[in-house]
Amino acid sequence: MDRRRQTGQAGEDLAVDYLRRLGWRIVERNWRFSRVGEIDIVAVESAEERQTLVFCEVKARAGTGFGEPLEAITHVKLQRLHRLACLWMATHEMGYDKVRIDAIGVLSPPGAQATITHVKAVRL
Amino acid sequence: MSAVSGIAQAQSVALLGVDATVVDIEAWTGSGLPRTTMVGLPDAALTQAKERCRAAVLSAGYAWPAQVLTINLTPASLPKTGSHYDLGIAAAVLATQGVLAASSLRGIILLGELGLDGVVHPVRGVLTALLGARRRGAEQAVVPTSQLREARLVEGMTVRGVNTLTDVVAVLRGGDGVTPPPVVVTGDATAAGPDLADVVGLTAARWAVEVAAAGRHHLCLHGPPGVGKTLLASCLPGILPALCPSEALEVAALHSLADASIEALPVRPPFSAPHHTASLASLIGGGARIARPGAISWAHRGVLFLDEAPEFSGQALEALRIPLESGEVILGRSESTIRYPARFQLVLAANPCPCGLASTPQSTCTCTPMAIRRYATRLSGPILDRVDIQTQVLPLKQSLLTGLGGEPERSEVVAHRVGQARSRQAHRLSATPWSTNAEVPGAHLRKRLPVPLGMEAVDHAVAAGLLTARGVDKVIRVAWTVADLAGADRPTSDHVFAALALRQGQSR
Questions:
Q1: Which of A103, A107, A115 sits opposite B33 (nearest CB)?
Q2: What does the alpha-carbon distance between residue B468 and residue B461 come to, in Å, rounded to a whole number?
Q3: Where along chain B do its domains lie?
Q4: Residue B54 distance to chain A (closest CA, Å)
Q5: Bridge partners, A98 (sequence order)
Q6: B32 and A68: CB-CB below 8 Å?
Q7: Which DSSP symbol is given to A71?
Q8: Nearest to residue B309, comparing CAs of B282, B278, B285?
């Protein structure tokens, strides 16, 4: 496994830990639909007895030399995520009140505390 | 990283022609995927400002917000153009990031373009922008160091210079700014084109130019090619009174719109001599979307010289009519209506016919009578109507070239007489809105000022059909200037004759 994939995998693990601490239920990780792509995290947020299905895109970086992690989430990526979300909903049992797409940026410099930036409702 | 949301505001100036409006640059950051948008009617160059600013901020070692960043320029309805907003945008963004205190930006006009490496580049119109901002109560400004001298021409304004974005941060934190290396300013008081001493002979024409200068009369020089019409005309700025400080500021403000930097206030009146192929837009000002000043505005408070005037397009010449009356030009374009000052003294030079030799003694004109007539009508009535002095410049006699005419007077000597005549006029017209004889309307001439003595010659000319009612006004106007030059309190018959002589060859 090369260093970039390590960073990505570790970032997703950190994001999952972070969401669990928020009290979210992780439904699925790395759900792939043939050639369309992959959803990093599918989770459910429960608040005030309402269930929100959240599709999360995680972007992890080891440093800001190439910019902030969230800057790498482009319009094209969001469009693909939107399509994947629709496909996921078409192939799964649904019983949720709302649906949302979030972006999570993980900045984990080697040997230092990782920083997580969570931006809600980037699309939909 | 927490999503800091903040607002900061910096000030800059929007220029529409010579009219300046203080613009607030607001920067707002909020949560969302990182994205920078710019609103408030920016043009293409200004929309690209965010890319320049971002690179400059990063080069200077600061962070660009990784959030939603909205930059707004208010008043949003005003079209904005140019690259001088960069400093204000960068400063407002840095303030949202806590690099600068938001309060440190209050009341400081920021002007300057940023390079990708964070270097501040000079921009056009600094003087014009700061003059406008000062009138609107601004007291502090930050400009590129190379334009510090230009900016300091504005009175009552504390200006500091910057070379880089790092300097901007230092200045806004209370620093003194960068001082430019001193330069030796060379006085241009005497460097005002050719001297009248270079003009050999042409006694009558020299005198016509002197009278024109003294009364600020528009002038038309007729004559065959090569007699020195162009030389005479270019001597005019040298004998006109020097610009007073407020006029010099007006002239410098206009020139600041074209040149990147101005070192000192101009002393001599400007001289603008567009070629006769000049387009309408280059002559009166123009251009798409937002009009730029033309030759008549470069001649503001100075001389507009149209050499070979009949060769100018009819449209271009007619376009001069309104500026000649109002002293300004108003240019309407899709996005704005712009006013440029254009109070100039018009000097026309014309050949009498296409070959140039008609009505010159001892020469043979090869043009047909029809061609001569057609050539003469190129300068239309309405334009010539505004020209008080029309004079023939006749070719030299051999004797004058060999020095028998005596040493010609130098510009300095003539300028002194012109200055005295001007102060007589200013004194006499002190209770009126005018300051020179050429501006005085006919009614005031005839009713409020004493009638010149010896008007019989004028009556004869009218009776003979050589002079119209409007022509009479012009003769009286010029007679007053001649009297002013002679130091007389009221024009006498000599002065009236002289004024009539200055209209020779004209039948209206």
A1: A103
A2: 9
A3: 6-172, 196-412, 440-508
A4: 12
A5: A52
A6: no
A7: G
A8: B278
Taking the CA of residue A47 and the nearest CA in chain B, the distance in Å comes to 21
φ, ψ for residue B360, nearest 5 deg: -105, 125
CATH class label, B440-508: mainly alpha
Q: How many CB pairs under 8 A join A and B?
A: 26
Q: For residue B39, count other CB atoms closer than 10 A to its CB.
A: 12
Distance (Å) of CA B326 to CA B154, B492, B500 = 27, 31, 27
Decide if B37 touches A, using CB distance below 8 A.
no
How many folded domains does chain A comprise?
Answer: 1
> 3-state SS string over B350-418?
ECCCCCCCCCCCCCCCCCCHHHHHHHHCCCCHHHHHCCCEEEECCCCCHHHHCCCCCCCCCHHHHHHHH
CB B162, CB B171: distance < 8 Å: yes
CATH number at residue A18: 3.40.1350.10
Q: What is the pTM of this model?
A: 0.78
- Collect all residues of chain A within an 8 Å Cβ-Cβ radius of residue B34: 67-68, 70-71
Q: Which of A67, A103, A115 is closest, CB to CB, to B1?
A: A115
Q: Which among B105, B161, B224, B485 is positioned nearest to B502, based on CA atoms? A: B485
Question: B204's torsion region: left (phi>0), alpha (psi -120 to 50) or beta?
Answer: alpha
Q: Domain B196-412 belongs to what architecture?
A: 3-Layer(aba) Sandwich (3.40)
Could you tell me where the beta strands, DSSP code E, fall in B187-226? Answer: 219-222
Q: Where are the alpha helices (DSSP H) in B144-202?
A: 148-151, 165-172
Q: Do A73 and B33 make contact, defined as CB atoms within 8 angstroms?
A: yes
Cβ pair B33:A70 closer than 8 A: yes
Alpha-carbon distance B313 to B299, whole Å?
A: 19
User: Minimal Cα distance from B2: which residue of A?
Assistant: A117
Strand partners, B80: B42
Domain containing A85 equals 3-123
CA B178 – CA A38 distance, rounded (Å): 55
Residue to mutate among A18, A70, A82, with most B CBs inside 10 A, is A70
Which residues of chain A are within 8 Å of residue B31 when distances are taken between CB atoms?
Answer: 119-120
| CATH architecture assigned to B6-172 | 2-Layer Sandwich (3.30)
Per-residue pLDDT of chain B (508 residues; tens, 9 = 90+): 334 458 999 999 998 888 899 999 999 998 888 888 898 878 887 888 989 999 999 999 998 988 889 999 989 888 888 889 999 999 999 999 989 998 889 899 999 999 999 999 999 889 999 999 999 999 999 999 988 888 988 989 999 999 999 999 999 998 887 877 666 555 554 455 788 888 777 778 888 999 999 999 999 988 888 888 888 898 898 899 989 888 898 898 888 887 656 778 888 899 999 998 888 888 998 877 677 888 999 999 999 999 988 888 888 888 888 898 888 898 888 777 888 999 999 999 988 888 877 777 777 888 888 888 888 888 877 788 788 888 888 776 655 555 555 677 888 888 999 999 999 998 888 888 888 888 888 888 888 888 888 788 888 888 887 777 878 888 889 999 999 998 888 888 889 888 888 876 443 3
Nearest residue, CB atoms, B66 vs list A70, A78, A120: A70
DSSP-derived 3-state class of residue B433: coil
Q: Which residue of B has its CA nearest to A73?
A: B33
Using a CB-CB cut-off of 8 Å, the residues of chain A touching B36 are none
